[in-house]
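Throughout our pipeline, every protein is held as a single compact record rather than as scattered files. Nothing more is needed to write down the fold, since each code stands for a local backbone conformation. For reference, a complete record is included directly beneath this paragraph.
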Amino acid sequence: MSSVLNTVYNNYLTAYTPKTLTRYDTHKKSELRNVYNSIVKLNKEAPWYLPTTNKDTQQYAVDIKENARQLHNTIAQLGGLEEDGLFNKKSAYSSDENIVTASYVGPQTPENEIPSIEMEVRSLATSQENLGLFLPDAKTALAPDTYSFDVSINDMNYEFQFSIGESETNRDVQERLIRLINNSGIGIHADLAEAEGKTALRLTSEATGLSQGKSRLFHVSDDKTSKRTGTVEYFGLDYISRQASNASILVNGEEHSPSSNHFTVGKLFEVELNGLTEEGNPVTLGLKTDVESLTDNISHLIGGYNDFVKAASSYVETQSKSRQLINEMKGIAGLYSNSLESIGVTLAEDGTMNIDRELLRQSAMQSGDVSETFESLKNLSGMLLKKSNQVSLNPMNYVQKTVVAYKNPGHNYVSPYTTSAYSGMMFNSYC
């Protein structure tokens, strides 16, 4: 059962929610208890519906839930969970974002002035790559049977079993192994390399760099596997064509070797390495001015709102109730449209919002009281936060459903999992 759950979870992460996870995706027991209690309360008088079996509808339900989660996290990252936090969130800058991008993760009210950082990037962290033997697209020389091989990664061992038929070609087997590995979600990506009419399996680790004392990120073998051996040698799966390596950087002249291209510097800046600097020409990281930070925060807020509306709009032709969700979002934005226009934010016909950044900057610079000038945005973010929580809690509210029966008011059984029907949707292919 654990293997089935693991497969379902990996499928969920890769197929439904490839978005970046944040610290706001972790929760205390008390928060999870509140979510459960909210579901129970929501379902107390809710009618019974026929189960949703259409795959497109299932995809839609999970997708709007995940986009609601993303909107919630966007607001949370901007400080929207705290009183006046939306106006105090600081933003970082990079003098060359093609080489290094940065975001500020330090305290919002630092005791001392945050100094700028000079960073030189000499090399990027790389992943491990195994490149197999190039074989012709001819009948495989392996005898028909059930084979297996083991992959060791992150101190875990995974066994892959597969069968080879009588008339299968090398490419047939290679393509099956690609699907098998990629669907497993163990942190290795498989694809097909081609050269001169021949193909080879290429395995690349998702992780980069090496921990101290380690010489590789993953290892492929069939020495102690449970089924027939021979595939590792035949396809050349154990040949390391590129070793994993750490990045090499200078931070204020001091050398460092992070194992990833994504890391934190001094608990102040979250950094992503994108390219290499010229020797003696470092990238400067620092904090933007309060006006620029405020403008960035508002732009991210509006961008998160627009992404959510666009995601719902993509289902208008196939999911009739998605229009209801769009209208509700337009209704929220419309409450503040007049006051928002004066600071450079306008509501478009399709429900999205546009920003005049210059007018927004002028409003911020001329403002005597930021909280008062941008009160409408603060209220908007609060309502969007509530709406995102509501959609995340019950995405099935925006799915066309057939009512089976209404409950007897005051004399019914609690059904706490009705709103979470989308979770069962992901198990359909496995159970």
